[in-house]
Each structure stands twice: as C-alpha cells, then as structure tokens.
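Table S7 (text form). Paired inputs.
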Amino acid sequence: MTRTYRIFIINPGSTSTKLSLFENDKNIYTTDVFHDSKVLLSFPTINDQLDYRMKVIYDFLKEDHIDLTGIDAVVGRGGGCYAVPGGIYQIDERLIADTRAARGGLYHASMLGVQMANEVHQKYGGIMIMMDPPVVDELCDDARITGLKGVYRRAVSHALNLKATARTHAKRMGKRYEDCNFIVCHIDGGISVTAHEHGRMIDGNDAGGGEGPFTPTRMGSLAVTDGRRVLLGRTDREIRDLCSQAGGLSSWFGTSNSDKVHRMVENGNETAIRVWNAMIYQIIKWIGMMSTPLKGQVDAILLTGGLLRFPEIGKRIEESCSFIAPVYQYPGEFEQEAMAAGAMRILTGEEQVKTYPGKPVWSGFDS
C-alpha cells in the first residue's frame, strides 16, 4: 500500500498568506487570507509581521479542526536569501538568518515563509524545505550589465509559479520545459515578466526591487531623474515601502485591494480607469521587451496570477501581443501544487534535498 504523506504549505505574499494541507498530491484544505496594505504598513519591518501572520495559521488550523501532529513536511516559500540555483533546499539556521537579513537584496513578504515554516516545525515536527525561491538566478550575462560599473541587475521574480506554469504548459504541448521558449508573466500583487529559454529564465524584471510595471503594491520603474526628485529626502523605510508595499495602486488609491480598485473602474471613476489601463499597458510593454532576448522564437506567452480574474487584463494582452506568439491564460497560481510536488519528490527519495550554500550563485565577472 502506498504511504500517505501529509504536507503543509505556507506561502506569504505581498498582500496575502496562502495555506494548504496536502495528502500526497491531493489538496485537502486551502485558505488565502488577504492583508490590506494599511495593516501591513503598521509594522516597522516585514520581519515584524511574523506573529501577525502566524496567527493566520493558527486560526486556520483551529477553524478547520486540523491537527498537524506527525506532519511529514512543512514547505515555506523561499525569500531573499542569497541567490541560488533552482531546486529544493533544506531550511536550516543559516538560511533563516540570511533570509531575515535579506542577504540577496529582496525585501518582500516571502522572507517570512522559511521563518513561518520553522515555527510550525518547532511545534509539530516534519522536514522543512523551500523550493525555487524568488532569488533563483539564471540570467544570461548580457542581462546582468548596467550602465554603472560594478552595479549589476538582480534576478528576483515569482520563480516558483513562473516555472511551474511553464512546465505545465510544456507538458500540455507534449514537450519538455527544457525544449521550449516562453514568455511567462505572473500578474498579481507583484508582477514578473520573464523570458525562458530552454528551461532557464535568462531575463526578466527585478520584481522585488520595483523594476518593471507598477503593481497593486509596487511603484515600478521610474526615470532616474524622477526617482531622485520623488525619493530624495525620504527615509530608507519610505523608499523600501514604495518599492514593495506602498507603491502602485496603493499609492494612487490608499489600498492594494484590486477588487476595490476594480469596482471604482466599473463605476466609471476616471482616475481609476486611467491608472488601471496604464498598469495593463506597462505589462504589455514588458512582454514585448522579453521577446527580443528570445530573438522572436517564442512558443507561447503564458499568463498566470490572481489578477487574471479580471477578464480585460488577459484580453488586452492577447490583443496587443498575440503577434509575438499564442497567448494562454492560467488564472491563479500553481505555487501550492508545485511546493507539494517538490516535497513528495524529497519524501519518496525521487530527488535529494539541497543544502543552502550561504553565498550567491553568481558574484561577479572574473574581469
């Protein structure tokens, strides 16, 4: 008889905490608790949100009468540790410390994932792992260079969901992810637009650093002169929050709740309509940018993430970008399923867990 493994998934995002309990590959329970940016900004740092978000876990377990005693695996979404190759990593003290310190330069709610997994592990046991954290670095060399000597672009994206979506679509095509070229976009509280060449994310926006389209929580790219004018004199925390929590829709409307903003759009609010459409327009521009690293050889444009619940987003992207490649939508995300599948591979011995190296996968050119 095949053994049944119980796997608990913890996925803190910029505007929500998503929790799932799996038995092998079957999703038994899932909840996704929204957090308004006003509440999150009341904490001095993201690390200070730990107790607040742990209460979400304990409320979920109590309300659904779930006992995690004897759990086999606890999976925490990885955060801003040093950049690593893709894969599944054991959560240890060094990984937790480097994530809390944002050693990889990513300041984002995902940094709570390994910390929350450790809290659950301390109480209920089980192995604890992370998989394909946002700092997976597979950039091509040309994508690293900037116009300032010694300053290099970072790879920060929704790597877990982007790669899971790409693998899912490749399988539906009857191909391997490693044999395809995709542009994959995660569109939600944060937005990642990435170019995938034969199984590697060779380019994309630094979603964690505020580069790219503005989002419900992030201000997006600005000209250096605009950035200097707007940010000069602000505190480090104010600048950090604009990049990760207080920018974008939150800056315009005082809330990162996309449903509230979209209701304003539906009710004819001219400012809301203008800003909403501009956000979609910027996503479209970045998709066009990502077609060029792939030399136009794109098998498909894949859209995923929670904001696809608003049909006009996918429709406008398809209208503008289908000349590049066919556009396919995968609303929501595959992150919970991907983490559960990864835990199963470790638990069954199909794959070996990696040890976090404690140093970046790439640290500069030799000359």
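Next pair, protein 2 of 2.
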Amino acid sequence: MAKKIPEPTKAPQSRAFLVGVEFRGEQTILPLEESLEELALLAKTAGLEVVGELTQRLDHPNPETYIGAGKVEELQMLVEETLAEVVIFDSELSPRHLRELEERLGPNVQVSDRTALILEIFAQHASTREGILQVELAQYEYRLPRLTRAWTHLARQAGGGGGRTGSTGGVGLRGPGETQLEVDRREIRKRISNLKAELEKVREHRQRYRAQRKRNQVPVVALVGYTNAGKSTLLNTLARSEVYVANQLFATLDPTTRRVDLPGSHTVLFTDTVGFIQKLPTQLVAAFRATLEEISEADLLVHVVDITHPSAQAQWQSVMATLEEIGAGSIPVLTVFNKIDRLKDPSVLEAASAAIGNTLPISGLTGQGLPDFVRTLETMLYETLTPVHVHLPYQQGQLISMFHEHGQISRVEHVRGGVQIQGFIPGRMLTRFQPFQVKKKPEAEESEE
C-alpha cells in the first residue's frame, strides 16, 4: 500500500532519494544539476528529508524502468544504504515505469515523480474551496491511469481536504464480471466529472466578478513569475497588506487581489498568482484554468524575476513560455528584476537587462526602485496609446462608448452588424478590445484588391 507523504509539521520526516535523468539532445530550461536542486527544494517544501541523489545521461528512456538496468541496481543499493522510504524522479513517469520500479525496489519503498510531488505540495497548501477542488481534480486525473490496486489509499490521499474525498466511497456495487479495480476506476471517473462541474460554477462566478470589474473600468495588474520570485512580498509593499510570504515554493496558491492607489490619482487592482515552475504538470494547468484566467484577463502583467537566482534568465524564459501556453502571450508585460538588495555582483543585472530588455530593477522587500516602477506602470496603463483596428458588434455598445471616451479615433466605418474603428486606446484597455481586432490581410491579398 502506498504511503502518504507527511505534512511538513509532522516528525519524523520521510527520507527521500532523488533521481535525475538528462536525455541527449533534449531542450530543457534548467541543466540537470540545477533541476535536481529545484526538486530537492520541492521535496523539502513537501516535508521530506533528502538523503541522496543519482543522475544518468541517456539517449532515450528505458521502456521498462526509465533508467538503465545497471542504474536500477545502483539505485537499489543506495536506497538500502540511505534507508530511503521514497524515490522521486525529476520527470513524469509512465504507469509502466512506476510499476516496474516499485517491483524492483520492493514493497517498503514508494516510487514517485516530480508531477506527483508538486500535486502533493498543492494539496498541502490549498486553503480555499476553489484551490482544494482544483488540486483534487488534478490528483485524480494524474492517478487514474496509474491505478493498479484498491482505491482505499488513494481516496484518503487525494485533494488535501481531509475526509471529503473519500465520501464518494470507492466501494460500489459491482456489475456482472466487474473487478474491484474497474469499480474503483468508474468511481474516480464519476468524481472527476463532479469536480469539473463544481469548478465550472467557480469559473462562471469569476467571470461575473471580472465583468463587474471591467464595468467599473478598474485596470487589473497580474503579478506573474517563477515560484519564490517575491511576488507576494512586492504586493505587500505596494498595498501595505499582509499576504502570506514564505521562503518556499508555492507559498501562494489561490489568487489574492489588493487595491493600490497610484500617485496620479488612479486606482489599480493587483492580483498575486501562483508561481510557475519548469515541467509544470499539465494536470495543474488544466485544473487551475479558472485561476489562470485571472492572468489571461489582466490588463497588464508584471513579470517578477528573482535576479539573484543563478538561472534567472532561464526562469524568465520558462514563465514566458507558460504565458503563451495559457493564452496570455499578447498581454503587455513589464519585467522587473526583484531582490536587488541581495545582489552582490552588479554585472549580473547588466547582463540580464541586455539579454531580456525593457526591465526595471527593484526590491519588493526594501522598496528600492519602486517609485520608478510605479511611474512606469502608470504610464503603461494610462498614458501609452496602442494602435488598434476593431470590429465591434452593435451589442457591444459599452466598448464603442469606451473607445469614444478614452481613445483617439482615426477612422469609423459602419458595416453590417456593427462598426469598425481604427485608432489608439490606453494600454490598460487593450485586452478588452483584443477579441474584436480585425486581422490584417496578407500583403498578397491587399495587392490583388
């Protein structure tokens, strides 16, 4: 029976052994050694004691055990020597890999992977109903294809919500010829369906809330960045609030929104979002759709980068790739290099600024650089005018009025079903007009006309 990873406050801690594999020719954000360091921090966040690690470079995964047969034997010996209770791979393992490795390492050793570890951390940290539902859904979708035994242990583990998950049972009436495993899978699929329905209600509630904010014309700035980059500290300083801050990964799961009054008599809503990470599980991206929409619906993204991290540029690249993946790639971005109060070598800042461009150095903790940051933010939201060409249906009367009131109109053309407007609008309103933008025709078509 699989053992649950204990809560961080429980003692003694389970002993974890880490395994990292690098495949030749594979494009990764972090090199193997740094990726394992990140995995070790994840394990620590989950309340585990890391007792050793093993690495291997391969052309491709072993179809049975992921790592080579010789490395499996070496792993067996190291696990025995270190008395490790759980082995965690720095990549997502297939159901077959998990099964084969557990058979070779024995019944007293749990085999896990990065995805399961991140899901466990999320389960420990989720506090709101939305967060708990999202984590529970992600756990079930991850574990369903890996289910090889009775569901009782799984029902107790999933969701981080105590006994609620197990309330669906896991013990159902068997149909003709059904095995207990088939019954368990059917129960889990039913629970997944129920969770998706509940999360859809959450999504609809968020959409109504966002629509209200847009009617009030209060711009929303989403703080995004790699986990532990200092987003919550920055929000606390800007809003003089007390959002939970901890020097650990995924300290913030549920989005937190705070009102901030800017010097130019403008009001902005800042939203602190969950930190990104390399190899972010696809189950989490899907399950946290309602939360991630807070990012994709924002008027401006402030990308917070921990400039003191040795892989700061790689982390920046990882976050930008994830933003594209969730449909937020077209939103204006202001990149800030955070924690400059702890930066010992100024040349690091210069090199990163040259590589990324259009950045500001700040310290969310001490407030250094924040006056320039706030001025730049205000300019991007209220003073920078962006050229747009939109086709607005007559039903979108509010947007038509908004363009006339806040924008600069160059051309108006009434067409069937609506009005086409060309002109300039403030940066804070860009996302509201993006769904109605007129796509530019290819040059070949324009020349034919």
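The chain has four domains: 14-120, 126-204, 218-383, 385-448.
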